[in-house]
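Sample intake sheet
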Amino acid sequence: QVQLVESGGGLVQPGGSLRLSCAASGFTVDYYAIGWFRQAPGEEREVVSCISSSAESTFYADSVKGRFTISRDNAKNTVYLQMNSLKPEDTAIYYCAAGRGVDCPESNVHWGQGTQVTVSS
C-alpha cells in the first residue's frame, strides 16, 4: 500500500525552472525521511536532496545547492523539489524515495516510478 508517485517533469531550457511533486499514499510523510534522487543515462543513481521526517533539517548535493529547494506539505502528504536555474547536466530521471533515516532515507526504503527532466535548448 505504500506508494510514491512523482510528477512535474518535462522539457525545459537552461536557466528555467520546474517543480517536482511526490505524492505519498499508505503512510504520512511526516513519519519518514524523503529523498530526491536522479539517474542520468549511463550513470549511477545519485542523491539530490533530502528532508528529515520532522522537516528540521535538509540535505543538498553540492551540484544543486542554491538552485534546488526541497519542501514538504504534510496536509497534502506531498514532498516537492523546486528546481531553478536548471542546467543541461541536471537532465536525468528523478525519483523520490521514503524511508527511515536522519535526513535521507536509509532503511525501509520505498521508491517512486520516476519522472523525466530534460534541460536542453
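Comment: The longest strand covers residues 92-100. DSSP finds no helices and eleven strands in the chain.
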